[in-house]
Amino acid sequence: MALCTGLRPAGAAAAAPRVVVVVGDSLSAEYGLARGSGWVALLERRLAQERIAATVVNASISGDTTSGGRSRLPALLQQHKPSHVVIELGGNDALRGLPLAMTRDNLVAMARAAKATGAKVMLVGMQVPPNYGARYGQDFAALFAEVAKAEGAALVPFLLAGVADGPQAERLFQPDRIHPTAEAHPAMLGNVWPVMKPWLR
Length: 201
What we know:
Elements: E1 3-7, E2 18-24, H1 39-49, E3 54-58, H2 66-80, E4 84-88, H3 91-95, H4 100-116, E5 120-124, H5 134-151, E6 154-156, H6 185-200
């Protein structure tokens, strides 16, 4: 279920309103968390604090792949007419062992579909654990940067930087060792915000 929240901070009425659609998976859909504690909800609060007029639409679905996002995106673009589209997908592709070429093609198609409507695009990168193999891990992490460069999209290199690869990694994940706890989500927003703030300006 998408969460739509309109933010119109006082004093920001003169700024052009922005509509930010986040198309993601469980990392953005607050899987296993209390509502309002995930990084997308924290983003809404940060926008209000920064007095940036925006509407955030969290169109993330737990378990979604790039193929699922690609199929859902046209309706989201038509319904919400976003000025900015954040694509946080790919992790489930890797978990399912899907071909990297398929993931790349889907990300390219999503970026181009969003750009065709005039929206700006941001890709949120992901990495996989070492047990997937060094070559696969390197190629998977690199494809986000490759697509972002080719399509002129903004890039967050790794959503879980400082979480999955930090000294407190075990404590920052739920028992399934896949989904971060609420304590980790401020750090996740911290990885996104430095890229997002100038992107929104």
